[in-house]
């Protein structure tokens, strides 16, 4: 960087180097930012004729270590931004998908709760029906036993001879 050059705005640097402004951002050229001024790039070999509008900061001196450090930190920041942008996009997609799945889960849980309640009611109804049927079966068994006893008594009565019947035995 001991070469003579000028600090040029990015657009002028891109024009001088015959590249796109985005290419300037990707190259490891020293950059500096003045307060209230656009980013300037140190372009070796540039002259004052290459500057579209002369800036107060135009100098024939290379960047200071602080300016170089700032330019490098900007480059690192840009690189990190390029690599993390897809990750942030994926995180946003996953967050959106997580929200949708949470809503679906909540709806499924609500439906499951409603189904459980309905099944509990059906079970209670079936248990009540089973109790009623058991009571009716017990009544039927009691009636069957009484009927059997009555039938046995009637059979015994039929077997008596007419003479025993007449005498009241």
Question: How does this model look, in words?
Answer:
- This protein is mainly alpha-helical and 169 residues long.
- The chain has helices at 10-17, 21-26, 65-159, 162-167; strands at 5-9, 31-33, 39-44.
- The chain is built from four helices and three strands; from the N terminus they run βααββαα.
- Strand 2 (31-33) and strand 3 (39-44) form a beta hairpin.
- The longest helix is centred in the middle third of the chain and has 95 residues, at 65-159.
- The termini are far apart.
SSE layout and pairings?
Blueprint (H helix, E strand, L loop, with lengths): L4 E5 H8 L3 H6 L4 E3 L5 E6 L20 H95 L2 H6 L2
Mean pLDDT: 83
Order of helices and strands: EHHEEHH
Low-confidence stretches: 54-58
Largest sheet: 3 strands, antiparallel
Helix count? 4
Shape: rod-shaped
Derived from helix and strand composition plus strand pairing, the structural class reads mainly alpha
Cross-sheet strand order for the largest sheet: 1-3-2
* Rg from alpha-carbon coordinates: 50 Å
* Proportion of beta-strand residues: 5-15%
The beta-strand count equals 3
Helical residues, percent: 55-70%
The end-to-end distance, rounded to whole angstroms, is 144 Å
